[in-house]
């Protein structure tokens, strides 16, 4: 999937049809909200050294509507077996996950493309926006050993347990829904205690480094050289204070 998205940005492809219910719209040449908002407010200082922030942004269109975290998580939890979710998290392509119906494969693609968006656009590189997931200088070992996609995975894992116990999964994430300046819809804020900068106690057992007993791999790493070449070809984000 990362290969498809990188190729789209390299060749200025505006639309990728992944399956019947899923279309990706690469936000070419820094045209997306990730790029235009990368240096607004406090991000001006946070991202001052990230001159290519937002270059790999893309919209996820699910059933002709922009992807929203609430719909994604509820669909994934209700429709996909837990092992299938974990297979996707660990890098398996949806069509290679055994035992899924055609509809389940589509939803698995929703999940995969959302994971990829996190991995490409959030992190420690100069083309990414900052996240606490996988950040090497945070005190919380769980956050240090995580990867950007774990931000969604921790909600999905906990919701899957709640749903399996017959509880209302929306109660798990409703307090974390906030209106996003970037997308203008409601997105999940990470379950972090902002006083301690640690994952909240009710979510720690559901973090992948705890579930799997190892550090989560970052999907972007094998593509760094290729992405840096794209950055050099496209040039820096024109919204950067020292560029525009």
Kindly describe this structure.
The two termini are 32 Å apart. The protein has twelve helices and eight strands. Strand 7 and strand 8 form a beta hairpin. The protein is of the alpha+beta class. The chain has one domain (2-217). Helix 4 packs across helix 6. 37% of the residues are buried.
- The rough form would be described as globular
Terminal Cα span: 32 Å
The chain-level structural class is alpha+beta
Please, what is the average pLDDT? Answer: 93
Helix content: 40-55%
Q: In DSSP terms, counting alpha (H) and pi (I) runs of 4 or more, how many helices? A: 12
Instruction: Give a short account of the largest sheet.
Output: 4 strands, antiparallel
Radius of gyration: 17 Å
The strand line-up of the biggest sheet is 1-2-3-4
Low-pLDDT segments:
none
Number of domains: 1
Strand content: 5-15%
SSE sequence, one letter per element: HEEHHEEHHHHHHEEEEHHH
What is the number of beta strands?
8
């Amino acid at each position: 999937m990362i290969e498809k998205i990188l190729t789209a940005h390299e060749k200025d492809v505006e639309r990728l049809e992944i399956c019947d219910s899923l279309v990706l719209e690469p936000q070419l040449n820094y045209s997306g909200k990730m790029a235009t908002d990368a240096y607004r407010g406090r991000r001006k200082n946070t991202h001052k050294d990230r001159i290519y922030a937002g270059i790999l942004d893309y919209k996820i269109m699910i059933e002709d509507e922009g992807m929203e975290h609430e719909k994604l998580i509820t669909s994934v939890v209700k429709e996909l077996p837990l092992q299938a979710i974990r297979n996707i998290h660990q890098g398996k392509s949806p069509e290679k996950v055994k035992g899924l119906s055609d509809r389940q494969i589509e939803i698995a693609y929703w999940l995969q493309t959302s994971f990829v968006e996190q991995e490409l656009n959030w992190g420690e590189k100069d083309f990414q926006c900052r996240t606490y997931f996988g950040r090497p200088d945070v005190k919380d070992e769980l956050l240090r050993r995580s990867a950007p996609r774990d931000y969604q995975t921790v909600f999905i894992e906990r919701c899957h347990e709640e749903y399996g116990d017959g509880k209302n999964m929306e109660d798990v994430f409703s307090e974390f829904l906030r209106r996003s300046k970037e997308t203008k819809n409601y997105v999940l804020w990470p379950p972090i205690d902002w006083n301690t900068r640690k994952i909240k106690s009710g979510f720690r057992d559901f973090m992948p480094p705890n579930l799997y007993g190892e550090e989560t791999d970052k999907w972007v790493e094998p593509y760094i050289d290729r992405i840096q070449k794209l950055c050099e070809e496209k040039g820096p984000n024109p919204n950067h204070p020292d560029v525009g």
